[in-house]
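We now fix the convention by which a protein and its fold are recorded. Think of the row as the fold of the chain written in a discrete alphabet. Here is one such record, which you should read through line by line.
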Amino acid sequence: MAAHSQKDAYLYKKVISIGTVCELTGLSERQIRYYEKRKLIFPERADKGNRKYSFSDVETLMDIANKMEDGMQTSELRKEMQNKQSKRYDSKLRERMIKGQLNAYFNKRD
């Protein structure tokens, strides 16, 4: 899990059962498992193998369902999600590099 603020930590905590996710999203267990199989969603597995989802996963599933309804294919969705992830990683890397350069600059001045 990426670093998240304490305030938003609950969004990413995997505690919701698949039945509750079905109720929240209107999706069937079969649909949710299909999205998992297509590598669009990544639940954790509890001790007995039960899937556990986060509120962030619920939002992602709703987004997936809406885009699928609009005719988007799972392969297109996966590519879109990978691009978003890559952009987030690039942004974090750029931020760390800038902080490092600023630290080096100000430490050199002392």
Remarks:
- The chain is about 65% helix and 5% strand.
- The chain has a mean pLDDT of 87.
